[in-house]
Write a structure and sequence with these properties.
Length: 221
């Protein structure tokens, strides 16, 4: 791989990372195009190129952390503040933390924001990550096959487009962070695992999974 090719592939990843169109699929398709034009790049499904894809994904993750550093720092400070309050608070405050997992936490105590909201969101995020990890391992072999076949990537991109169109036509709902339930967290974890397949957008499937759970009325946990 030449420096120019590395810069080109990094640019493709960086540009499409912020759109719900599967940056991985565009990265892999770009690799196939370069190979078909005579590049000496290894095939996209080889360990070498999978490692390269992982590195550029880490790069975009670092970029996101830098861009949203203030928001992330504020979130962590809020979690630490809630944790400190829970350790020094009364028994009533500690029981309120458990109530934050109810399906309609916004109604707790008549407050606009439920107690321990940020801690609750952190725990739900960890739940989603755990679900993605457990389900992602069996999908790895299938993902390798999709990496090797552009026609399969075209099919998964079509699926992403159809699902995103559905989210655009369903009636809008009024949901906030305090309305994220355990069921939504599980659905998002499943969506994140499926997005290991190139063409299935990570952000797109997250939107779809949450919309399905809320629209169908499955967010009862």
């Amino acid at each position: 791989m030449s420096i120019v090719e590395a810069i080109f592939l990094g640019a493709v990843q960086g540009i499409f990372m912020f759109f719900p169109v599967s940056s991985t699929s565009h990265l892999v398709l770009s690799q196939h195009i370069l190979i078909n034009r005579g590049s000496s790049l290894p095939n996209p499904e080889t360990p070498e190129m999978l490692l390269f894809d992982l590195v550029v994904h880490v790069g975009t993750l670092v970029l996101i952390a830098v861009v949203f550093r203030r928001q992330l720092a504020g979130f962590l400070r809020s979690v630490l503040h809630e944790f400190a309050g829970a350790r020094g608070g009364s028994g009533g405050e500690r029981s309120a933390a458990a109530g934050a997992f109810s399906p309609v936490p916004g109604r707790l105590g008549g407050r606009d924001r439920p107690p321990y909201l940020f801690t609750r969101l952190l725990i739900l995020g960890l739940v989603s990550t755990a679900v993605s990890g457990v389900l992602g391992l069996p999908l790895f072999r299938l993902a390798e096959q999709v990496f090797a076949r552009p026609i399969m990537i075209a099919a998964t991109l079509t699926i992403t487009g159809v699902l995103l169109y559905w989210t655009d036509v369903v009636p809008p709902g009024e949901r906030g962070l305090r309305d994220i339930t355990l069921t939504v967290a599980f659905a998002i974890g499943i969506a994140q695992a499926l997005s290991l397949l190139p063409g299935l957008s990570r952000s797109g499937l997250t939107i779809v999974a949450a919309a399905v759970v809320v629209t169908v009325g499955l967010d009862w946990l």
